[in-house]
Design brief:
Blueprint (H helix, E strand, L loop, with lengths): L5 E4 L3 H14 L4 E3 L3 H10 L4 E3 L2 H5 L6 E4 L6 H10 L3 E4 L7 H13 L4 E3 L7 H11 L6 E9 L19 H16 L6 E7 L5 E7 L5 E7 L7 E6 L2 E6 L6 E6 L5 E5 L6 H15 L3 H21 L7
Parallel strand pairs: 1-2, 1-4, 2-3, 4-5, 5-6, 7-10
Antiparallel strand pairs: 7-11, 8-9, 9-10, 11-12, 12-13, 13-14
Length: about 325
């Protein structure tokens, strides 16, 4: 595989996880950029990164950077991606990739113009388990998919200044955890939902219920909350059986129950601790072999759905 020089933008928890994943896959990281030069230097020393830059612009202006991983708060993704794609850098961006579909469609058009790959760092699209399950569903093991149920609940201490509860920082459950639930549902649907019904508790959406249906008659029921713990559980139900997946953002195991006789089959595939490594491997494959259109279309569908949901809530972020 051709060697690609990665640059990391950001230095938070997920940036640290990705740095380790990049080292595991490639053995080295080319650059890190941060608006605080001291933090960039500290991060570079921790992961033996060759180049540390005190701004996003400096990193993007390095002609030897091939691909950037963006791990900043999601309200900043659009501006950084726009800069990166304009100078022909490939981009792997943390979820939610943008705060609305208008931003994402602009980035997609610019990426196509400049012949670069843009992808969201959504583990669900890259875990080996999901690729295997998608093949099994397509082969008809549970019959036609009729209903998908998916939950995600995280109990956050309420603090209006925290990014989770701040409209100024695009807070709320939808873009933080709902993007996982929506991506899970879209991955197993035959087409994008064209009907969305929803209600939420706002300022920001602390919790919500969402029902979706597509033109093929498949339905999705989602429950999201930042004020109570829920199991991260997804269920794909068909005419012949159902698939249950726990801890679905990074899972390596699913259980299929066949409804005719009730017998179960456990599917194990991949390593749930290597979710980010799978993202790196796929991203590099997309860049080298000009792939990834399908996964990007899933991301575009999810972004469109999230925007439709917020429109129904009447929830607009101040910077939009």
């Amino acid at each position: 595989m051709k060697k690609l020089n990665w640059g990391i933008i950001g230095s938070g928890v997920i940036a640290n996880e990705m740095a380790q994943a990049l080292l595991d896959v490639n053995g080295e990281i080319y650059a890190v950029g941060h608006r605080d030069m001291n933090k960039a230097i500290d991060f570079a020393m921790k992961y033996k990164i060759k180049n540390a830059y005190g701004s996003v612009e400096e990193l993007l202006n390095d002609p030897d950077v091939d691909v950037v991983y963006i791990a900043t708060p999601h309200n900043s993704h659009y501006e950084i991606m726009k800069q990166a794609v304009a100078v022909k850098k490939h981009v792997l961006c943390e979820k939610a990739i943008t705060v609305n579909d208008r931003q994402l469609e602009e980035i997609v058009a610019l990426a196509k113009k400049n012949n670069v790959v843009v992808q969201e760092a959504m583990t669900i699209f890259h875990m080996p388990l999901y690729k295997k399950l998608k093949e099994m569903v397509a082969a008809g093991v549970i019959g036609n998919v009729k209903m998908i149920q998916v939950n995600f609940g995280s109990c956050k201490e309420y603090d209006v200044n925290n990014r989770f509860f701040s409209k100024e920082l695009a807070g709320g459950a939808l873009l933080d955890i709902g993007v996982y639930a929506t991506s899970f549902a879209r991955y197993f649907l035959s087409s994008k939902p064209n009907v969305v019904i929803t209600t939420a508790e706002t300022g920001v959406d602390e919790q919500s219920g969402i029902i979706m249906k597509n033109q093929d008659g498949q339905m999705v029921v989602m429950a999201l909350t930042m004020r109570a713990k829920q199991p991260k559980r997804g269920v794909i139900s068909g005419e012949l059986g159902y698939i249950e997946i726990n801890n679905y953002p990074r899972s390596n195991q699913a259980t299929i129950t066949y409804t005719k006789d009730g017998h179960q089959e456990v599917i194990e595939c991949g390593d749930d601790k290597q979710g980010l490594q799978y993202e790196v491997i796929d991203m590099q494959d997309y860049i080298i072999n000009n792939l990834g259109e399908y996964e990007l279309q899933l991301t575009r569908d999810v972004s469109s759905l999230l925007s439709q949901i917020r429109t129904q809530w009447g929830m607009i972020y101040p910077f939009e």
